[in-house]
Amino acid sequence: MYEKVKKILPKKFIKSNENVLRHLIALLYVGTTYQCNICDFKMSRFIKLNNHDNLCPRCGSLARTRRLWEVLQNEIKGKTILHFSPSRSLKKKMESFEDINYITSDYAGEFEATKKLNIEEIDEPDATYDIVICYHVLEHIEADMKAMKELYRILKPQGKCVIQTPFKAGETYENDQVKTDSERLAHFGQKDHVRIYSAHGLLHRLEQAGFKARLQEYTTCENNKHGYNLNEKVIIAEKPVSIPK
């Protein structure tokens, strides 16, 4: 039903009436079996999208966004946070906390944000942020090493960058000859992607940029009450404390 509604109603109408529409749709899913950990809505089931993702009928959170909140929720108190390309559901959640300084950025105009920062040349002072959220961003960036060095620069010592991209087995795949939208779709799985990382390949690049990076893997989830993706990977890249020379 959700996918049908998206096809029938104009995008502009859906965007301007999103909260009302979500309230109405959510009534069809009320229950106690599952719960969104972002909006706390309890439901009988998640909306199953065509790509098999689990969508919250109330706030529209995806499985990866709920996992991200699980990773972040005990880390944010008193912190200054920069979030690139924020999902609406998590942005609303984060903005409800008075004890954090939460700043959002969107360069392409696809998300609601307070700043427009170029990740390859971030117009922010050195050592400004405790946490940077860079979720499903780097696979869009041509000069990804430049972006990683910028992320490193704006983090405070012991600051953390929480990163996820699509991952593949084997080696990171790039091809400079792939230029058009159709070619990128065929090679990288999405028309605006410029590579597919392997997890160890991205870890290596982050370490080259100066980070101490680790991979967190999630392979099982008892009952999966929050509708997480299984076999999911998240990278935590920490800026080490500088050692005086």
What can you tell me about this protein's structure?
There is one protein chain. The chain is an alpha/beta fold. It has helices at 2-8, 11-16, 18-26, 63-72, 88-95, 144-154, 181-188, 199-208, and strands spanning 30-35, 42-43, 47-48, 54-55, 80-84, 101-105, 129-135, 155-164, 167-168, 197-198, 212-218, 232-238. Strands 6-5-7-8-12-11 form a 6-stranded mixed beta sheet, sandwiched between helices. A two-stranded antiparallel ribbon has the order 1-2. The protein has a two-stranded antiparallel ribbon with strand order 3-4. The longest helix has 11 residues, at 144-154. The radius of gyration is 19 Å and the shape is globular.
Radius of gyration: 19 Å
Largest sheet: 6 strands, mixed
Q: Helical residue percent?
A: 25-40%
Rounded to the nearest angstrom, the distance between the terminal CA atoms is: 62 Å
Q: Return the average pLDDT rounded to an integer.
A: 91
Uncertain stretches of 5 or more adjacent residues:
none
